[in-house]
Amino acid sequence: MSRGKTIAEVVKGGLCTGCGTCMGICPVDAIEMVIEHKKGIYIPQLDEEKCNQCGLCFEVCPGHGVDFKQLDLEIFGKEPDDILIGNYLNCYIGYATDYNIRFNSSSGGLVTALLIYALEERMIDGALVTRMKKDRPLEPEPFIARTRDEIIEAAKSKYCPVPANIALKEILKSKEGERFAVVGLPCHIHGIRKMELTDNKLKNKVAYRLGIFCGHPPTFLATRFLLWKAGVKPEMVSNIRYRGEGWPGGVAIDLNNGDRIFYPHNYLWTNLLGAFFYSVRCTLCCDQSSELADISFGDAWLPELRGDRTGISLVISRTELGQELLRRALSQAWVELRDTSIEKVKLAQGQFAFKRSMSIRAKFLRLLRHDIPSYNIELAPVKAGAKVVTPIFYLNVYISSRRRRWRLLSFYVRSWFFLAGLMRKICPR
Fold first, then answer.
1. Which residues of the chain have pLDDT under 70?
2. Residues 382-415: pLDDT tens digits?
3. How far apart are CA 294 and CA 325, in angstroms?
4. What's the CA gap between 139 and 135, in Å, rounded?
5. Which residue, 51, 55, 19, 290, is CA-closest to 167?
6. What are the C-alpha distances in Å from 41 to residues 11, 140, 364, 398?
7. Tell me, what DSSP letter sits at residue 411?
8. Which end of the chain is more exposed for a tag (fewer CB within 10 A), N or C?
9. Distance between CA 225 and CA 204 in Å, rounded?
10. Residue 361, C-beta contacts closer than 8 angstroms, at least 6 positions apart
């Protein structure tokens, strides 16, 4: 155990992912996840008077490092053959058979359908999921859903920072014999897997780990920028939904006066969120598909599915546990699944270009004397053109990270995407 080291060292080095694992494990409640409004991210706030220097928060933190070799051997019994995807058993495309669940989810509704199925079949007693707060609708609320309605309430992606693992504390305090599914991004799954190495109680209570593909979530500043462009103050918002209403859907913002603002998903990611408002730490992640989950899910951005307007998911089963859950749900007609190839998965996710550029981003940030996390993993081959694009990418992060630059950003966006389109022609994937 790293006795004496605390999460404060991770924050100081700029390596905190905001996942909330440290708060979830702290035995003396000395850590609270708070929003750092200037950067638009969550960071842990340590109460040094309460802290007993046990070192658990540092031990389970995925921010400063994840030993993928150790965890791959522990979970799968081997290192992966494919360094872009990680260990896996099978790949599918599919969707929930319940039309309403499918239409009102991010893509296919499989996570929602599987959670409801597992709950109703008493395979789990609840699920760690995230909804937006009712009293503060621009902030996420991780919680343990114990009913069908609560699971549905948490459907759809949340395009903002989410400290999901703070809810692990509730799982640890649950009744004897209760078991849960957990849903999270790669960093959340990393934290859970690291925590399970030190806490058998958690390992016994987590029945399924459902991981979401991650293109690295935007900071809270992204949502604030959208509101700023629309001339809307945060206190005027009554509700926000980042996905849903068919596929690929879009961001729907309801206002207190009954008005509604809608940004189509393709517009957002093609013209804004795909290149701006990143947390610097998120750009150093080497996992784009939740490689340590039991099952991973993502959007099926395949050419042959462009006509779909309801939603279809990519699915990667990674463990026998996850494979069995899919098999049972399929046999009882909760989901539809069709085999697909790993090549199709890569195509649908742009050949995992963000992961393939990670080593170049790490080298660039080293030059700027930024701390770099340790992964103990073979890094993916570098994407063509990454050396040229990386400095521009971090310029985008810099410009979008300060509100006083947002007027400049509005004009800059058009120039950036013209340049990006040109680079794609010169340096194709």
1. 1-3, 270-274, 411, 413-429
2. 877 788 889 988 988 888 887 777 777 776 766 6
3. 10
4. 9
5. 19
6. 12, 12, 22, 14
7. H
8. N
9. 42
10. 283, 284, 386, 390, 393, 394
According to DSSP, residue 84 is labeled T
CA dihedral 89, 94, 97, 100 (to 10 degrees): 120
Cα gap 144→120, rounded to integer Å = 15
Q: Which amino acid is at 200?
A: N
Q: Tell me the C-alpha distance between 283 and 403, whole Å.
A: 21
Q: How far apart are CA 275 and CA 269, in angstroms?
A: 8
Cα–Cα distance for residue pair 43/10, rounded to 1 Å: 10
- pLDDT at position 414 is 63
The identity of residue 287, as a single letter, is D
Q: Nearest CA to 255 among 105, 130, 137, 131?
A: 137
Is 281 in contact with 63 (CB distance < 8 Å)? yes
Handedness of CA 228, 153, 274, 163 (dihedral sign): positive
Angle between helix 358-367 and helix 386-400 axes, rounded to 10 deg: 60
3-class SS of residue 71: helix
Q: Is 154 helix (H, G, I), strand (E, B) or coil?
A: coil
Contact 194, 59 (CB under 8 A): yes
pLDDT digits (tens, 9 = 90+) for 77-136: 999 999 999 999 999 999 999 999 999 999 999 999 999 999 999 999 999 999 999 999
What would the two tokens of residue 54 be?
A: 């046990």
Q: Which is it for the CA torsion 327, 330, 336, 339, positive or negative?
A: positive
Buried b (16+ CB within 10 A) or exposed e, 57-77: bbbbbbbbbbbbeebbeebbe
Amino acid 43 reads I
Angstrom distance (rounded) from CA 117 to CA 94: 16
Q: Report DSSP letters for 145-197, one per residue.
A: E-SHHHHHHT-S---S---GGGGHHHHHTSPTT--EEEEE-HHHHHHHHHHHH
Side chain identity, residue 246 = G
Give 341's DSSP letter.
-
- Rounded Cα distance between 144 and 129, Å, is 6
pTM of the model: 0.94
Strand order in the sheet with 206-212: 140-145, 126-132, 180-184, 206-212, 295-299, 313-317, 90-96, 335-339
d(CA 168, CA 266): 34
